[in-house]
Amino acid sequence: MVITGAFLADRAEMRDDGKLNVFGGAWAWTSLPLPPANLVLLLDTGPDDVGRVYELVIRMIGPDGLERDILRGDMSIPDRGMFAMMPFGFPTNAGLGWYAFQCRIEGQDALPAVFRLEVRDGQP
Q1: What parts of the chain have a pLDDT lower than 70?
Q2: Beta carbons of 88 and 39 less than 8 angstroms apart
Q3: What span, in angstroms and rounded, lies between the C-alpha atoms of 24 and 28?
Q4: Whose CA is closest to 34, among 8, 59, 13?
């Protein structure tokens, strides 16, 4: 399993037919405090991934260049889905500026899926 893409959305949900509905997706910027958000991960899965549990790591690179893991947890693959969704919490002590987020599976050599987000002063 490889994470091929990642983005933030106001809301994301899986339909009964397995398709993904996204509302307010692909954020470019926001303001603090971060409004409710969902992280959407686009996945490339194979039949051998079904039933496995992977360790998801999300690393944040701040405007100051410092890197830190902001999420590290298990992600199970119940079926051959093409995406995963989860609530996204922005660190409360983060300030204004550009942030990059790397989403990867621990122990894999694949390049991480990356998205950027600018945090501005003011309402989105």
Answers
A1: 123-124
A2: yes
A3: 11
A4: 8
Triad 48, 111, 102: Cα angle to 5°? 105
On whether the CB atoms of residues 3 and 41 are closer than 8 A, the answer is yes
Residue 47 phi, psi (nearest 5): -60, -30
CA distance 19 to 28: 24
Q: Residue 70: what are its φ and ψ, rounded to 5°?
A: -105, -10
* Residue showing tokens 């809301």: 11
Residue 21: other Cβ atoms inside 10 A: 11
Residue with tokens 């899986």: 14
Contacts of 31 (CB under 8 A, 6+ apart): 119, 120, 121, 122, 123, 124
Whether 43 and 80 have beta carbons less than 8 Å apart is answered as no
Determine the Cα–Cα distance for residues 19 and 9; give it in Å rounded to an integer: 16
Residue 123: the pLDDT is: 64
